[in-house]
Amino acid sequence: xxxxxxxxxxxxxxxxxxxxxxxxxxxxxxxxxxxxxxxHQVPLWFLWDGRAVWMCTGASSxxxxxxxxxxxxxxxxxxTFDVVLLQGEAECFPDREVPAEAAQAxxxxxxxxxxAEEGSFVYVRVVPRTVRAWxxxxxxxxxxxxxxxxxxxxxxxxxxVPVT
Length: 164
Description:
alpha+beta
């Protein structure tokens, strides 16, 4: 892995790159915590709808149990050099109560419909409040590209989807 010679991207370029990755990547690391049992981290498939990250996991999973007690969550894309960290609060939807458009988009992306399974599943929706993105040490300063749910260095958005 090369860590030198990385050109520092402007905030708008970082934001564009984050949005592209959110739209194309498959996996995200989900970090939750339980007040008695401590931290828990697991990779899940995810869907970006232009405003929120949607994931799905078993209704009895440690992730769901943790989120019901403590909805604050951190998500990270699986690359240790091109880092993207999202923070927000999770909202849980039993598979029979999830908005139809989210369930259809999720099934369309992965070819898997949790409602067709025998077990119970929960969709987890996270609207990011903070997003950090950096590639190597030169980008550590200025790594915040979203603060308080607002993309920095971007024009106003329409329907929650940032306008370039």
